[in-house]
Structures are given as C-alpha cells and as structure tokens.
Amino acid sequence: MHYCNEPHNPVIFSNRSAKALKRVVMLSWPCRRHRTAVTGHISHRGRNIVDLCQTNPFGFTAKLGEVDITSDYGSSGAPLFNGSGDGVGVLQGGDGKFSYSIPLDVVRQTLAQWGGEMYAGECC
Fold first, then answer.
1. Res 1 pLDDT > 60
2. pTM score, two decimals?
3. Which of 15, 39, 78, 102 is most exposed, with the fewest beta carbons within 10 Å of its own?
C-alpha cells in the first residue's frame, strides 16, 4: 500500500447531488500515476450494491452513483467533482468500464457520524 505524503487542499463539497448525464471529473492518486484526472458522465444515480457484486461483506445499503469512468487499483477514495469544481461523491470502486461512487448525502451523513465538521459546504 502506498500513501501520498504531500499536503492536499480540502475538498469543497457541493450543496446538491450531481444529476444524471452531467459531466464529472475524478481526481486520483493511484500508484505511479500522480494526480490522474479522468472525465465522464453520471450514467445512473442509484445502483444497488447487490446489482454490482455477489457479496456485500460490510452490509453497505446506500445506492451508489455510476459513472462512465474507468478507475485503477488505488483510486478508491478519489473525489468526484462537478463542473464547478465542487465534490459530488467519493469513488468506491469499479468494474473496468464503470466506476461507482458513494453519493454526496452518504458522505455528509458519514462525516457527521464520525464527528467531522462541515460548514459552508466545506469538509475539513
């Protein structure tokens, strides 16, 4: 496992979820591919985890956003940005042709449960 030791600016999250067919950008740091940026479109806003894989070891129940972006090993956790540069999701994984993201409302709920502060659209 490789970790990035460089400082990064906080992600400013959008106040609303991205709409289907809208363009998004994924910014990632997979191994040996520093600051990889990939563009695509939201192809579906609510895939069930059981539609994507046969097992669900963590009991994840939220619907995942589907984007027509290929992702690489090490890209999980990459933010997805809308055209305004605001975060609209966090990459969960992919299957080669599509990638699946944790939607904005789930990111907000999780950060609140973990005690993360969110104010004025910013996550710290």
1. no
2. 0.73
3. 15
